[in-house]
What does this fold into?
Amino acid sequence: MTRSHKDTSITRRRALAVTGGTVAAGGLAVAGYQSAFADETTTAADAEATASATSTSSGQCVLMSSVTEGPYYLDGALVRKDITEGKGGVPLTLRITVQDTTESCGPVAGAAVEIWHCDAWGYYSGYTTANPGGSAPAESEDGSTADDQTYLRGYQIANANGVVKFETIFPGWYTPRTTHIHVRVHTGGEKADGTYEGGKVNFTGQLFFDDDIAAEVQALEPYSKHTGSYTKLADDMVYDGGGTSSGLLTLKPVHKKDPSKGFKGSITLGIDPDAESTGAGPGSGGGGTPPSGAPGDAPTGTPPSGAPSDSASPSASASS
It folds into this structure.
């Protein structure tokens, strides 16, 4: 099942940027400016990589398509680079560049990028009683030191080149979804009490993985203990087949002949900093069978203590 891109109005300013937004590498470095929120030092390598990633081969700047945030979102994720908390799995270094499609593809310095995803067996922190489908060990059998309310969730603040980096693991899967990572981009807020507060959400999306690479990883421990019918990209209810503009990651193995050594994933997210995302984009309802034992409109897991009972998006189904 495929989904079309979100139908968004295009302002004259954005139209000019999208149709003629070629960018000179030197124009991306914001001279003398370092975001007050940036956690990483800007390097020449970051600047060069950002410049090369800001346009397609045709020199056009691409506005990413927004999709559902899904039912497993929780407020209060921590600002941190390493989100693993000891969870076992194939290492994944994720590099995300945030770019402004309305301003000649320039970097969005200071943007807060938030990600969350399931563990190797398909469980989300905060919802660890939600059955991932197929046959999987109980989440408690993982044996890691991870906090079952916070693992595999976190924020990073974009540096002057719009770049954030996360250290995590390759996600597992749950019925009926393909392997994916949820992502939000926020602006206008600030770091407070270890998390990010205020501002607005400009983009809500999901990041996806090549089927062949996912199959390689799923054959390894601990992923191989979760068996069942895996959903490939072409059959996923959210991924619409648009490649990079639809969230497909560029993946490079750390060791070409040994996938267990991990991968480096990268993508550029083109956003409109003036827009606000509700988290209810395409893929927000229907289109598949929820995980075994879960109702059609909510996961069965219990949110962490203090989390609102409606912390999952009411417009999102448990299958997202």
